[in-house]
Design brief:
Number of helices: 5
Helix content: 55-70%
Order of helices and strands: HHHHH
Radius of gyration: 19 Å
Length: about 130
């Protein structure tokens, strides 16, 4: 498995950075990157090395989609709603006020969106947007 070790050393940082961009949290990104390399290890004989790191990125993307779906289900259950319960009144369309506020700069809109839609904390928002946390 010396070849696997070489591939891991070559692509681990890029896969981790991509995972952080997908989920915005380093702890979750570490798990996603580890899952991708575990999947590669299982299928190493079947994967062509010239398809890397793209193959790893696809695994991370798919796992991050699963993460966001689980997070949405958790939020529904935490708010007391079940996906099986029909809504009595139609849901209001998603129209946050910060998208309509002309006095906000685009970066401020992005910060508000990441905070209130994706539930990221200040440190994660700063990392994701390349800003300082202050």
């Amino acid at each position: 498995m010396e070849q696997f070790d070489t591939v891991y050393r070559e692509h681990a940082r890029a896969v981790f950075r991509y995972a952080v961009k997908c989920v915005g949290r380093q702890d979750v990104a570490e798990d996603l990157a580890a899952d991708a390399f575990m999947e590669l290890h299982k299928r190493f004989d079947q994967i062509r090395t010239n398809e890397l790191p793209g193959w790893l990125f696809v695994v991370v993307k798919n796992r991050s989609v699963d993460y966001w779906r689980r997070k949405a289900v958790e939020q529904r259950h935490l708010s007391g709603l079940s996906s099986a319960e029909p809504s009595v009144e139609p849901a209001a369309p998603f129209d946050p006020w910060w998208l309509r506020a002309p006095e906000l700069k685009p970066v401020h809109r992005a910060c508000l969106h990441l905070r209130y839609v994706f539930d990221l904390d200040r440190a994660d928002i700063a990392k994701r947007l390349g800003l300082t946390e202050i």
